[in-house]
Automatic annotation (TrEMBL):
Enzyme class at the top of the EC tree: transferase
Example of a GO MF term: protein serine/threonine kinase activity
Full protein name: non-specific serine/threonine protein kinase
InterPro entries noted in UniProt: Kinase-like_dom_sf (IPR011009), NEK_Ser/Thr_kinase (IPR050660), Prot_kinase_dom (IPR000719), Protein_kinase_ATP_BS (IPR017441), Ser/Thr_kinase_AS (IPR008271)
Record flagged with keyword ATP-binding: yes
Ranges of biased composition (kind: Polar residues): 385-394
Organism annotation: Kluyveromyces lactis (strain ATCC 8585 / CBS 2359 / DSM 70799 / NBRC 1267 / NRRL Y-1140 / WM37) (Yeast)
Superkingdom assignment: Eukaryota
Catalytic activity entry: L-threonyl-[protein] + ATP = O-phospho-L-threonyl-[protein] + ADP + H(+); L-seryl-[protein] + ATP = O-phospho-L-seryl-[protein] + ADP + H(+)
Keywords: ATP-binding, Kinase, Nucleotide-binding, Serine/threonine-protein kinase, Transferase
Family to which the UniProt record says this protein belongs: Belongs to the protein kinase superfamily. NEK Ser/Thr protein kinase family. NIMA subfamily.
EC number(s) reported in the record: 2.7.11.1
Amino acid sequence: MNRNERQPTYRLLEEIGRGSFGSVRKVVREADNKVMVRKEVRYGHMNAKERQQLISECAILSQLKHDNIVEFFHWDHDAKSNTLFLYMEYCSKGDLSQMIRYYKHQRKYVPEEYVWRIMVQILMALFKCHYGRDLSKLQTIYDAMEEPLKSKGYVVIHRDLKPGNIFLTGYDDEFNQNASDVDYSKVIIKLGDFGLAKSLQASIEFATTYVGTPYYMSPEVLRDQPYSPLSDIWSLGCILYELCSLHVPFQAKTYTELQGKVKAGYFEPLPHFYSKNLQDIITRCIQVDFTKRPSTWSLLNDIQCRICRKALDLEKFERHLLNYEHELTQVGEMLEQHATEMKRDFASAVDQRVREILNGTSKPAATPLITGTGPVTMPGRTPFRNANVNRNYR
């Protein structure tokens, strides 16, 4: 990970979170007024294992580039205070735990189409983590999806999937990064907080470190057994179950009681409000035997997931068109302003020339006022070619 020689400057805003090793606050990049998040991690009192975990997080964040993963921009540090600064994407719509609390407070179930939308976006982010590559584009919902080969690179297991680590943003953030109104039918999912993530050399390897949040922790982790990316699938199932029922699948008052329930794998049926297909997917994810759990590739092959993916692709295409229209409007305004200034300058030059002729003080013009060759360039003006319109829309 390369660190820029000249780091940008930031204006500090309010603190939005705090943990055992530091805090998270909003900042504004002064160069373009972009709102970002700065994770401030104090590493002075960390032991060797914790520092290695911090280094791993930085490495993972710098490699994971995906539309549904919180974007990592760069890092910096303050040697005097032993503080590491991680600059990341700001998600203005909160997280999935806030959405669940909202619907619980409203005494309403989350509409099923919202659940599918959220699930597919999480799956696409996990596919990137588990297979080390992006999904191929769908031309139609009936396209054959070949199962990817075992990754030759690093496979990332998140290991701490929970509603609080699934952040929400929206397309309107591109033009208004301080947007506060949340339309849960249009939210964009951003998987974040890879502080406990684990990189493996290949997908056939297994990890053994005991980490995670108990309510979403897989049985193999609770048993202190080796685990694979399918451990994230269990956590995903628990999250989807909570999104539908508004409570976790395994409830207990003590850790021992919770451990017993998770190992037994019994949970109450989901509300009949939801389709059998959705209920079946969630049940398949929350399987005690990890070999019976579906992979991200298998889940994304479901026809409803394909339909949802295609709808998200169309939304993304529409957003690109709106962005393009926005830029064209700006270019049009620039051209209009440029033409107005040229007319004003030309009229002023002609008026001055006429006055010189009438007063008998005119001199032969070295060059004509307007020539038929080359662009007209006015001093102090930015050439139109610098306008930011040459983007690649896919």
